[in-house]
Amino acid sequence: MGEFLEFRDVAKAFGPIQAVDGVSLEIKKGEFFSLLGPSGCGKTTMLRLAAGFETPDRGRVFLDGADITGLPPNRRRVNTIFQSYALFPHLSVWDNIAFGLEVAKRPKAEIRREVEAMLRLIQMEDQAGKKPGQLSGGQKQRVAVARALVNKPQVLLLDEPLAALDLKLRQRMLIELDMIHDEVGITFLYVTHDQGEAMSLSDRIAVMDQGRIEQIGTPAEIYEAPRTSFVAAFIGDTNFLESEVADGLDGEYCRLRISGFPDVVAYNDKGIRPGHPVFLSVRPEKIRISRDRPLPDTRINVAPAKVEDVIYLGPTTKYWVRAGGQRVLVLRQHFRFFLDEKPIRWKDDVWIWWHGDDGFMLEGFRKGDEKLVASPPQKVGEE
User: Which domains does the chain have, with CATH numbers?
Assistant: First the structure.
């Protein structure tokens, strides 16, 4: 399956601000594709370029092989759902969904058939006569989806559509959006700053920063094998350990030297040579913590540490520990939890360890990326 929605070397500036800076991107037919990044990274500008609300300063936009760069929005088979939903407050749910078909002067029988199909899809047949002001946030979101889909667009563009919803409703709507996508099978281009939304919905994700794409991949590829320090820090929590390649071990692994820390074994997938500075990214859930030292293993990295902060979160506990000169975040999953078991507490001496395969070597760390790394509250007194 080849590209369906394509951006070729697209650039867009607003005065001195370069919102999109030479982006090339191919999205497949039927794919649920997300543009993910912080505010101001260019993701919404990309969506507006696809919709026709903005024209690129450079580059072209293609849909199903046709150049649509110069087409106005009403001549593109693309519909957009905004964060505000933009429903007509004076029209009923039925009339909101039917609006586009009526503007297109479709036969009344067709309009009735298509609107009824959309109401069944969003499970709101009994709400057809209500006005938007009588609906919940989740219901408004579903009506906005139905109104966008009833015209059978080739691409549905979603601009942070869940941002206004509370957490529980947002989680439910994620499931519903995924089900609707599976049902209708058209291409979804989803814009969000919420990594959880992107990871749970997407077939693939493009992580953006400062108008450029940092990495494109499946959720697993983005999380488990980040290509840059920005991606590693933006997607979930991680620990960055500044290090230098000391020597190779057997061609696949190398030993890293870290200030104030025991030497570390890491999988050297990039073939980085000795003497080269790198940053080792280790996800906190990959690190184990215990009062007892683990059994020795040539691929296991072990370090003594002291607990500085503890936050109990129910399913998990977060520990910030000091290991030599390094502050390390550890996430412990409660597979089993015993109330009579002596818990690890603040100031306890512990051991931390992780397998060499679970650290990811990155060759660069840009100024500002450290702000994305989770920072714990500081202790001000004993518990």
Answer: 3-224 (3.40.50.300), 229-372 (2.40.50.100)
